[in-house]
Amino acid sequence: MTFENVHERRRWYGLILLCAAQFIVVLDGSVINVAMPTIGQAFGADQQALTWVVSAYVLAFGGFLLLGGRLADLLGRRRMFVVGLVLFGVASLVGGFAGSIEVLIATRVAQGLGAAILSPAAMSIISVTFHDGIERNKAYAAWGAVGGAGGAAGVVLGGVLTQYAGWQWVLWINVPIVACCLLLVVPLLAERRTDISDRVFDFAGATTVTAALTLLVYTLIEAPAWGWGSIRTIGSGAGVVVLFAAFVIVERRSREPLVDLTIFRIRSLTGANLAGAVAGGLVVPMFFFLSLYLQNVLRYDAITTGLCLVPMCVVTFGISLTLGSTLVTKWGYQPVLATGMALLGVGLAWFGRAASDGSFAVDVLAPGLVAGAGLGLVFTPLFVAAATGVDWRRAGLASGLINTSQQIGGALGLAVLSSVTFARLEEGNVATAETLTDGYTAAFDGAAVVAGIGLLVTVTVIRARDSRAHVELTRRSRTTIPTPATKPREPVS
Q: Residue 428 has what pLDDT?
């Protein structure tokens, strides 16, 4: 076997490693949800404390993603990937041994920090490893497929592990996966030396943007309970605005900014981040309210609920892994993303027609297949658009941005649509199957409207001519040179 063949195989095996790490990151966002009642009984915790077992992970993950992505650029991508893996694995191990709810919440924060470091590092490794347009599309298709399937897999695994092994295993399941990933890092991911001797770390920028993002996520988590018009929500929102304004001022004056604001001049990246926020704002509430509908209206148990979501996730995974890259290569990222948003909107609107005496086949499976197909067509073009035109030195920053957009969008979407649901439920006074269905379908209808906004963003902010240019560049990349957004192939970190 030639050296070139060995190198090619190592790159693709490395992609599997990166996707495995991303899988547990996405998995951990949902796997613990099903275990909440059991954890509450084990620690005698109230509902507020249990809420923070979930929210602590989201808060740390969303707040530190941008910093994690930039550190990957500055300190080395493989190095930060390993740091994130170790932190994530240790936090998972310690969390299973937690003797109090406070310790468990602290380990969830540590898990979120680890995820915020390893996820953008992994995505930036993909960006600088796969230069060929067709190969990059395939790599991002695999990455998107894993992201689409991880959430529902968490619901299924959470139910099975909690019922048959104990709630601790929803955390401990990460440990062997992390261990395997760490063993394979050196053989599969090459290190590239990163010279930062002439760079000054933008501490002020890192502090302000991390504080702003963390406060934003915290506000979105608490706003439904505080009330959107309450003094606490308004004051917290004002604090977010002040911190973001301070961040922009700091970045404009910094010699080595954490975020070079000129990156937003790249229309494909800006459009991808806006569309990514919309996608995050749809996916998180969709799985959340589907789970509630299945359990509270159709009266399924936790494991059956998870299994009911499998067909939709299989469709998402299959389409993203197969059609996703093929269609982006043939048509370009803009029309494929627009098609995905449209299908997702149709599926959500169909969920909005669910009945209180409905059935799995009509009210869950059929619309789920449509929505799943839409999701499968969203992820690949989203990541391709976010990476197009970005210099290889800023690959980590671009990865941090698109991940941050999705996390913030998810928190915002869940907060707003939860408020819509609770408002509708309060009108019904008594929580019957009919009033619960009215609340959940109101959330789905709202999500369908948001999908329409995502479609509008896709066709207006992301330029069709840029998408067509990417298609032409991809076709020529086999016989000419790597894309201008990257540097000729070299070892990656």
A: 63
